Fold this sequence. Notes:
This protein has four helices and 17 strands. By secondary structure, the protein is α+β, with helices and mostly antiparallel strands. The chain is rod-shaped and about 115 Å long.
Amino acid sequence: MKHLSISILMLLAMLAAGVQTASAQDSSQRDYERGWYAGLSGGTSFGQATFRSITESKTHVGAQFGVFGGYQFSRLLSVEALATMGGQKQTSLDCDPFWLATDGEFTFAPVLGKQGNYFRDLEAKTRWMRFGLQANFDVLSLITNPATRWSVNLSPQVSAVTTRTKHLATGYEREFDRQWHLGLGGQAAVGYRVAQYVGLQLYGGITCLTGDRFDNIPKYEHKSNLIYEAGLKVAFHFEKKKPAPVVEEPAPIVAEPAPQPVVEEHPAVEQPIVEQPVAESAKVVEAQPVVEEAAPVELPTIYFANNSSRLTQKEADKLDAVAEMMKAQPDVTLSIVGHASNTGSEDYNLRLTQRRANTVKMLLVRRGIDGSRLKPVVGRGIDRDAADSKQARRVELIINDKK
């Protein structure tokens, strides 16, 4: 019971750590990172109690298959439910000298008046079903590029297992009642994403069964009660719908207006002045040049999707007016400042806001603005004073003071 409690506590601790880490990961790393999935599994099955599939003389390979379904929270963590059934044949080890009576009593020698067989003359066939819940931790995601298709999963598992065993010998057959066990164990798997919606895994697993041994032999020298398995899993992933189409970096280049012909101004030719007699000298009023005051400029705020440094087409179009204003006023320079919402770590959001600011600068440069007029370009990290998360995920454009 002590080992059972420790195993359950370790499973809960790993789940809590996985959920916390997954919540801080960038969900934009891969398009297929989050969502539901389902699949099929199949492979081999082995058993080990007093009777064993793997013995000194021969290995008896069984078969198993199952179905599973779950939710991928991030590249690191997924949780799935599974149902598996299988079976295998076991034979006794030569080190078991016991004689088993048909009523379940075992001795070192036959008992007068009872029917039975020596362990070495018996074989057992076991059928089992398992209903379980497991968490999958992709440890490869902690050390590799987010875009990799490979995965290495470690998967603790808790399950309910039902077994039913039949004893066979020459001229003898007995089938026992069904047993229920609590199963604790796990799997290790190496996977590869062959397509956006399809993944394959080679896996191996072990389940330790509590209670009586599944081969219906009383506990004596051998106390193992294990089911082993290995095989192939095929998973089909269901992609979540995205809220809006995005403009991939680099942004599309907007065609500049055709240049207008330049009319050169020629200096006026001074004509000789011929004085004419006048009755009265007229007052000459010099014409003053008319200076038009520039209208105050309202710079737009550029908003981003959660955990993204890419722009929707609607937000990218806001920069057209900014570029036109800067072309009309060549002495204007801008500061570009990025902000983020309070989701994820401080360090991650600081890097994210710098990428957002760099994206806006790049799009303005592509619209014909000299990059030297766009500075500083900085990311400020999390904006805790914003009204809500949507307002916080933004880039501000600020006109620099003229020196």
